[in-house]
Amino acid sequence: MKRVAIATLGCKTNQFESAAMSEQFQKAGYRMVPFTEPADIYVVNSCTVTARTDAETRRLIRRARRLNPQARIVATGCYAQVAPGELERMPEVDSVLGNREKQDIAGLVEAGESRISDISAEQTAEPLPLSSFAEHTRAFLQAQNGCNSFCAYCIVPYARGRSRSVPLDDVLRGVRELAANGYREVVLTGIHLGAYGLDLSPRHSLAGLVRRIADEGAVPRLRIGSVEPNELSDELIGLMAASEVICPHVHLPLQSGSDTVLHRMGRRYTARFFSDLVARVTAALPDAFIGADVIAGFPGETEDEFLETLHLVEELPFSDLHVFPFSRRAGTKAAGMPAQVPADVIRGRGERLRDAAVMKKGAFLQRFIGRTLPVLGQTGQPETGRIGGLSRNYLQVEYAASEDLVNREAAVVIERIRDGVALGRLVGLWGEQHS
């Protein structure tokens, strides 16, 4: 039985697709092994959001060749889609496959093919079948692919194509299958998730999809992936507030707190709009985890514009931030913009934003000391007799419990915070405490 190892870089959509590719290989008779072990086939599912992720793809490819000089090495994903030539020139690479080719990766690898389809011509989002996921307790489910926004800094629309939605019935079927296989939480993912359903006939919406999943009740916990600020509707916020299924967790790509920078980026909202949105979220969901993406050092960003972003971050009740130093991506509008910010300035601004993020996360965690939270047990630690789990509002929680509580939702009193993890005390099962 041939061995296959997959390494995944980037977003939750890539993680979902890697899980689906793994399942495809197993159905074709292959055995999956960790990427750190010798394998007959290595697949690197690449990201190309930054130059750093491109470099990481190349590093993983070289590492795979060292692990087994006779292995077949395959590059796929977004870097492979937008710059196949760069990967084909690597002597370690045997095949380069685009994002569309993930639908039949086992067959293409078996045939030894390299192929990059024109992703811009894709009109539909065929759901990749997936019945299991590596985490065993929570699974990602792709509801949408592609993006129509073409923000100035972003290569993703060229790597993923136009916005395409998985048909409603297929998403519901995917949730049911994951739930039937024991998953207690499903995370809806997409490249531009807020655009879900706009391309379907009849048209649907993300709020409508979420309502259907929650009403059906197949899975106890539903988490929504990143949603653009101008697409997090009041209807969706209201659904989250009223539902016992939808997790109180939102992730909003802010990118900048300066209106002039947002305009240059091609973002379709203002800092004031974003602030008002966060106020509506916190009013409806006072315990919600609110995450955000922020870019440091976009071309032309002055110190005053950066300070507008920093001050907005400091003022708003964020729970955490993903800070991205600006990276020039060939083929994007921003790559050719004047007044590129020096690398050392970008690094300094990124550090200041990350410092603010640490303060925000610490303050958010401290709020829950003494509170009882529902925590889904994810990983057992037999040597310590403890379990690591995740609360509905995205706190990493650790508590003493036997391994039979993995994949069960427990009621845990948070007692203290250590290194970003909430340490708690088990008081029972959540359903028993809150029936």
TrEMBL record:
<keyword id="KW-0963">Cytoplasm</keyword>
<dbReference type="InterPro" id="IPR058240">
    <property type="entry name" value="rSAM_sf"/>
</dbReference>
<feature type="domain" description="Radical SAM core">
    <location>
        <begin position="133"/>
        <end position="363"/>
    </location>
</feature>
<dbReference type="GO" id="GO:0046872">
    <property type="term" value="F:metal ion binding"/>
</dbReference>
<dbReference type="InterPro" id="IPR006467">
    <property type="entry name" value="MiaB-like_bact"/>
</dbReference>
<feature type="domain" description="MTTase N-terminal">
    <location>
        <begin position="2"/>
        <end position="114"/>
    </location>
</feature>
<dbReference type="InterPro" id="IPR005839">
    <property type="entry name" value="Methylthiotransferase"/>
</dbReference>
<comment type="function">
    <text>Catalyzes the methylthiolation of N6-threonylcarbamoyladenosine (t(6)A), leading to the formation of 2-methylthio-N6-threonylcarbamoyladenosine (ms(2)t(6)A) at position 37 in tRNAs that read codons beginning with adenine.</text>
</comment>
<dbReference type="GO" id="GO:0051539">
    <property type="term" value="F:4 iron, 4 sulfur cluster binding"/>
</dbReference>
<keyword id="KW-0411">Iron-sulfur</keyword>
<dbReference type="Pfam" id="PF00919">
    <property type="entry name" value="UPF0004"/>
</dbReference>
<dbReference type="Pfam" id="PF04055">
    <property type="entry name" value="Radical_SAM"/>
</dbReference>
<dbReference type="InterPro" id="IPR007197">
    <property type="entry name" value="rSAM"/>
</dbReference>
<protein>
    <recommendedName>
        <fullName>Threonylcarbamoyladenosine tRNA methylthiotransferase MtaB</fullName>
        <ecNumber>2.8.4.5</ecNumber>
    </recommendedName>
</protein>
<dbReference type="GO" id="GO:0035598">
    <property type="term" value="F:tRNA (N(6)-L-threonylcarbamoyladenosine(37)-C(2))-methylthiotransferase activity"/>
</dbReference>
<dbReference type="InterPro" id="IPR013848">
    <property type="entry name" value="Methylthiotransferase_N"/>
</dbReference>
<keyword id="KW-0408">Iron</keyword>
<keyword id="KW-0808">Transferase</keyword>
<dbReference type="InterPro" id="IPR006638">
    <property type="entry name" value="Elp3/MiaA/NifB-like_rSAM"/>
</dbReference>
<keyword id="KW-0479">Metal-binding</keyword>
<dbReference type="InterPro" id="IPR023404">
    <property type="entry name" value="rSAM_horseshoe"/>
</dbReference>
<comment type="similarity">
    <text>Belongs to the methylthiotransferase family. MtaB subfamily.</text>
</comment>
<keyword id="KW-0819">tRNA processing</keyword>
<dbReference type="InterPro" id="IPR038135">
    <property type="entry name" value="Methylthiotransferase_N_sf"/>
</dbReference>
<keyword id="KW-0004">4Fe-4S</keyword>
<keyword id="KW-0949">S-adenosyl-L-methionine</keyword>
